[in-house]
Amino acid sequence: MSSQPTKQALLGEVPQEFDTDTLRFDGLRGTRAAHLSAEALESRLAALAPAPKDEGTLDLLVARTPDFGRVLHERVTLTIAGGMPGDRFALQTKYGPEAQLATMQADHARVIANGQPLELHGDNLFLSLDLSAENLPVGSRLRLGEALLEVTPKAHNGCKKWAQRFGLAPMRLNMASHFRSRRLRGLYLRVIEDGECALGDRVVVVSRPRSAAPHTGTTRP
């Protein structure tokens, strides 16, 4: 069995045309025909309307099951103790509270998916809200339905699963110096106050810190 490229290699050492279907892992797989080139990805992202900065909406709620599947919810209660009910990250304590709720900006997720299901990304929350570091520095707090959430310092950088599903271009653009602060891959939130949320609920930025802490670490979706 041939060796697998490291994450660092996927970020720059392997050629752009590398066959991501050779990447091995448990879980859902993407369609290579849907992968966007770096040029097409940047062009489509540039064409997006500016995302709301202070108040947006919840577009999708997803739990990642222990068998690497997905459950789409219409309504859930998010808790400090367990994050999203039934989510694999909540059931496996090794991930820790800083990776409690994986979150993506919905318009970014749609562009990258290019027709594939959004839940393939492996995130819990998809928000119509500007998730950039400038708009939501670490420690920012959001009210989602009845729940209060906080941006954690855990970096959300993608992994080989994301590369197989959507190609190398999104993973590399997410880490590019001119794009990194936009958080193309998203961010992590933790629950500060338990509460119910439902599809279509408002998400409101209730506070931002004066200064941001640096992102540290990474996890697998």
Structural class: alpha+beta
Helix content: 10-25%
Could you tell me the mean pLDDT? 92
- CATH architectural designation: Beta Barrel
Question: Number of domains in the coordinates?
Answer: 1
Q: What's the quaternary structure here?
A: single chain
Strand-residue fraction?
15-25%
Number of beta strands: 10
Largest beta sheet: strand ordering: 1-5-4-8-7-6-10
Our Rg estimate from Cα atoms comes to 16 Å
One letter per element, helices H and strands E, the order comes to HHEEEHEHEEEHHEEE
What is the distance, rounded to the nearest whole angstrom, between the alpha carbons of the first and last residues? 24 Å
Query: How many individual helices?
Result: 6
CATH class: Mainly Beta
Shape type: globular
Annotated CATH topology? M1 Pyruvate Kinase, Domain 3
Structure description:
With 221 residues, this protein is α+β, with helices and mostly antiparallel strands. The chain has one domain: PK beta-barrel domain-like (M1 Pyruvate Kinase, Domain 3), CATH 2.40.33.20. Helix content is 19%, strand content 24%. The protein has six helices and ten strands, in the order H-H-E-E-E-H-E-H-E-E-E-H-H-E-E-E. It has a seven-stranded mixed barrel. A two-stranded antiparallel sheet has the order 3-9. Helix 4 links the parallel strand 4 and strand 5. Helix 5 packs across helix 6. Mean pLDDT is 92; it is low at 212-221.
